[in-house]
Amino acid sequence: MIQNTYSFAKYVSLIVLITLGLIYGCSSSQPAIDRDTGSSTEAEAEPVVANVEESAEGTSEPQSLLEETRAEFPVYELPEIEDIRGGELLLGLHPEFQRRARFLYAVLESEGIEVVFISGYRPVDRAYLGNRLASWHNVGLAFDLNFVGRSYTYYEEDAEKWSRVGQIAMYKMGIIWGDMFNDRWHFEWHPGFNTRIRPHEKERLAELAGENLEDYEKTFALFNPDLNARQGPPPCFGGCPNIPHPGLRALYDDLRKSQ
After folding, report:
1. CA 206/CA 215 separation, integer angstroms
2. Integer Cα distance of 236 and 174 in angstroms
3. Which range, of 19-28, 29-38, 222-231, averages the lowest pLDDT?
């Protein structure tokens, strides 16, 4: 009888221990369940809140492309011809190319680079052309510039400035820079045509302007920029139809609207 009572008590104790174990296991696993479902204790939440606050403090409203470009090139208007050094030489240029020359001048001025235009449109001069059929100067699609106070002599101390001018003109504005054929003063723009005018191109120009290109302005229709034109990266073939640098294109468009 005593033995049976002892066995029964032992059995009950075992049941109690198992029950307590189950209760403890459920309660200890609850935080893990909370984390899985997105809940957390107050101590666990603090670092998350701190991170969110730090992220919010470090976030600033992004500037527009136009504002960012003006921060680099503070240009607010296209200069008038009479306000440009040598500006009268731009009068015979293709209207779009003339605007880009004025824009280049303003951008360079904003960087403290002072230039003067020294050549623009030039009528055909066979003695000057030599073996060439024509020059882009002869159809108002080229200009020359130099730094203020300089002559047609290359000064080594100007190398960095020339490099900057060429970078802006050719790779940001899509204007061909003559340094690629050893004429660093020279800039031209004629999308789709060769830098050195080929016979078939001369014929096309002459059909519109006459054999000696005396009515050269009639060729301007060949070079009207197409805002939807597809173009490769600069330097484009003959120059880029549209300004390739997104920021400078936005600035240029804004300046044209305010004219």
Report:
1. 9
2. 7
3. 29-38
Q: For residues 214 and 33, is the Cβ–Cβ distance under 8 A?
A: no
Cα distance between residue 247 and residue 172, in whole Å: 9
Is this model's pTM higher than 0.85 or not? no
CA distance 115 to 104: 10
Tally Cβ neighbours within 10 Å of residue 195: 16
- Return the axis-axis angle of helices 246-257 and 65-72, rounded to nearest 10°: 90
pLDDT of 70 higher than 70: yes
User: Is residue 50 pLDDT above 90, yes or no?
Assistant: no
**In this structure, what are the phi and psi dihedrals at residue 187, rounded to the nearest 5 degrees?**
-140, 140
> Is it the case that residue 161 has pLDDT exceeding 80?
yes
Full 3-state SS string of 216-231 = HHHHHHHHCCCCCCCC
C-alpha 163/C-alpha 216 separation (Å) is 32
Amino acid identity of residue 99, one-letter, is R
Please check the confidence at residue 24 and state whether its pLDDT lies above 60: no
Cis (ω within 30 of 0) for the bond into 123? no
Task: List the Cα angle 217/236/150 in 5-degree steps.
Answer: 70
Q: What single DSSP character describes residue 82? A: G
